[in-house]
Amino acid sequence: MAVVETRALTKVFKEGEVGAVNDVNLQTREGEFLVFLGPSGSGKTTLLRMIAGLEQPTRGEILIGGSVVNHLTPRERRIAMVFQSYALYPHLSVYKNIAFPLKAQGVKKELHRQKVEWAAELLGIERLLDRKPRQLSGGERQRVALARAIVREPTVFLLDEPLSNLDAKLRASAREELELFHKRIGTTTIYVTHDQVEAMAMGDRVMVLHQGYVRQIGTPTEVYDHPSDTFVATFLGSPPMNLLENGEAIVGFRPEHLQPVELVPQAATTFRLRVKNKEYLGAEWILYGIVSGGKFDGRELISRLGSAASHQTDQTYDFGVGEQDLHFFDRQTEKRTGAKVLAWR
Amino acid sequence: MAIGQSQAPTETVGVMAPPPLAEGPRVPWRRTPEGRARLLGISMFAPAVLYITALIGLPLVLAFVYAFTDVKVGSATSHWVGLENFRSILQSPSFRQALLNSFIFTIVSQVLVIVGSTTLSLALKDKFHGRGFVRFLILLPWVAPISLGAIGWKWILDSLYSVINWVLVALHFYKPYSAPMWLGEPVLAMASVILVHTWRLLPFSTVILLAGLTAIPKDIPEAAEVDGAGFWRILFQINIPMMLPIINVAVLFGIIFTFTDMTVVYILTAGGPFDSTQVLPSLAFFTGILAGDLSQGAAISLFLVPILVVVAYLMLRMAHRAEIT
Amino acid sequence: MQRGMLHTIGSHVARWVVVIVFAVLLAFPFYWMLITTFKKTADLYTLENNPFIFNLPPTLEHLRLLFGQTAYLRWVANTALVGVIVVTITLILALPAAYALTRLTGRWGQPIGIGIFLTYLVPPTLLFIPLSRVVALLNLQDTIWSVVVVYPSFTVPFSVWLLMGFFKSIPRELEDAAMVDGLSRLGAFIKLVVPISLSGILTVVIFTFTLVTQEFVYALTFISPESQQMLGVGVPTFLVRGDVYYWGSLMAACLIASVPIAILYNLFLDRFIAGFTVGAVK
Predict the structure, then answer these.
(1) Which end of chain B is more exposed for a tag (fewer CB within 10 A), N or C?
(2) What fold characterizes domain A4-225?
């Protein structure tokens, strides 16, 4: 087990351009599952590749288990990585794929079979050992990739969007499998994804990245309930948080907190909404409304309602938000601030 | 752990400077992972580049040097003679004939090759029963060694036992023993050389065009058909225009393979009769190698260079355009 | 409907006419070699005989002459030996070069690759005069070693180009994975990239071998003794005695050498063509 640490880690691909990763300071905790979450181009994969040693940092330091590893090649860092495409060696059988790291690192030949079988059993792929990668389904490929990563008992596990090549249905079960897998092996794991559901579901902590900068790092509850700025607030949650500029502040509230006034007895504020459009999602309704009248006339707000709701398009209803559900951000810096008393009319 | 904590002192170091490592002195550039990869790369491609430089670059320079000296086979010394070699070959009727022939040879055979291969590739583009075998037959002239194929033609065009003449006589176009001497009369000999070369290059051009045709999305001609266009309209307004880039490739390679070729001429006619089929490469061979006049031979072969430069330039431009799109 | 059917039948007929005419024209010389090989001399040289058929019973006399009284087999052996050595040299030079240019040289890789490819366009007929001098200086004249040294100059450039195409199609993540799994960059090349590229390497082997058998100009320039000849030069120069052409043996020699090479080449043709059309076909 080891802790991964970065200090002011920066990567600039082209001199003079903005960095792909900027001044990232992070420290994993022993055995934790840390998720790098961000849209494409946020630098999360570059950050991961720097930790793996596949990319050289422009500045800053990477420490694994307490010592600086900047000058070490990937092989010397004793990490394991699962790639987006799984990167299974197409010409080798599953057995040889899993044994590859052992061979490459000069593990004694007698130990290969035992270790491969241990890894294969851990992932339930014993019966696939003689197949070639192209004969495997997406889920099986993922398991082989995991087995190959786990076989030499790495100190750190790096996973680069390993679920993005699976179809939606498979993704849910593969996600669960990964969670169980991590619980069983307990190795420090860094997981890169652009999918907030994965991040929320799997991460002990989530690190939100945007344009190469760390925006927030915290538990899933922290980043969802206390977003540190407007980017995090809107990036997490679907549909995203409603944001309204109000004086020197930006006020945000999540769609599930914008409810018919009857259900919000102590509303901090209310809006009269004309329903522009509605989507039925089975378990819930998503309502797109236009504020009519008042300070925010014409602004669009989104509400998420239980499936029993019976609002009609083009009708007008009153909605409210509770005080405790409001988030406040500074209008200039877009950073989170304490609660403010604001004029709503 | 929080964001935006106080930064390590590395912050103040310039953009390109490597970070000072906690463990000790700076690692020299060539020891960094990047530096090692770069050095590995250079040591991996250097042998090939050196080999090619030694066997293509150096002789190319020597060809230019020879053309301005009076070096001969067997002579140890040589002198700078300036443009003397060029003056003398330009005055030689053989050279002027060869220069003209080279252009006729190249242009006529390329026109035939392109028309033929476009037709043939269009006929071959859809799958049909026996396509693989047909393709093998069609490719034979290109894949078999050219000197051997040319010998085959020499037999077919034989002055006495030509099968073509036998057919012509049998069809009563000619009386026995008066049929044409294919390789013995200037115009016929040139025509023969051109036809044999066309025969040789047609398959190559055809497969290149086929590769281009399969890359044309099928739905474009289909859309044109739905829009009501007929066969000829689709051919001339859709298929052929869309094939143009690939036809360019075929023509550029074809020009190189034709303009610089001496095998067909050497085997069929050896440049004769009376230099009527002599081309620049064969003349360079006879002058420089057989007659031993290296400097004049080199001067003659240098006349290939302008064409090569133009073709290389056009290819680079195409490669560049392909990269942008 | 009726017109449509007619149209379809018409285009089928037209296609077959084109295909058959071209196939006959292009393959005819090889048919001619075949029939000449087995015809009695008296049959060949009687003008009144229909040349398309056997007027006298077939014979093996030309084959016997070819294998018994000429250096034909020697030339075949020379060519095979040169082929094997040149293939080896080509692989040793081209494999690392192509890999380095696709993966290790950054943005310089492609321009250098194109530069190397362009040297393929420099023809033997421009270089043979200075090279004949170089070969003489190295004392390689009149031996097969002259062509062993010179042939890689045109097999390497095209092979580098072909292999670059292959290596580019290998996902980078595979090499990343191999390096994370514990291999160095060089190790990943030798233990992962080379085995994955076997089909590409085979293509280069076949391509190089066929180029060696097809080459004419250098072999003609550098080698004169009969025993050291390559096939392509030996057959047209030494099977002709003065003005006398032993057409039967000559055609047999051409046919026997051509067909195996043609079959091999044909198997890999699509890959070579891909090398020529990089850029123009997407």
Answers:
(1) C
(2) Rossmann fold (3.40.50)
Partner B contacted by C238 (CB < 8 A): no
- Return the closest-CA partner of residue C249 out of C47, C73, C48: C73
Domain containing B145 equals: 87-324
Q: What is the pLDDT of residue A123?
A: 84
The total domain count for chain B is: 1
B15 touches chain A (CB under 8 A): yes
Q: Decide if pLDDT at C180 tops 50.
A: yes
- In DSSP terms, A34 is beta-bridged to A190, A205
- If interface means Cβ-Cβ distance under 8 Å, which residues of chain A face chain C? 49, 52-54, 73-75, 79-81, 83-85, 87, 89-91, 100-101, 104-105, 148, 152, 158
Q: Taking a C-beta distance cutoff of 8 angstroms, is the pair A166, A142 a contact?
A: yes
Q: What pLDDT sits at residue C275?
A: 66
Over residues B76-83, the mean pLDDT reads 77
To which residue do tokens 């040319």 refer?
B150
Residues of B in contact with C45 (CB under 8 A): 161
The predicted model scores a pTM of 0.81
A231 pLDDT higher than 90: yes
The candidate with the shortest Cα–Cα distance to B194, out of B251, B285, B258, is B258
User: Is there a contact between B48 and C116 (Cβ–Cβ < 8 Å)?
Assistant: yes
Give the chain A residue nearest C172 (alpha carbons).
Answer: A87
Between chains, do B32 and A56 touch, taking CB under 8 Å as contact? yes
Q: What is the CATH number of the domain that holds B185?
A: 1.10.3720.10
On the question of pLDDT at B9 being above 50, the answer is: no
ipTM confidence score: 0.84
Chain B residues whose CB is inside 8 A of the A58 CB are: 15-16
User: What's the CA gap between B305 and C126, in Å, rounded?
Assistant: 8
Q: Where are the domains of chain A?
A: 4-225, 238-337
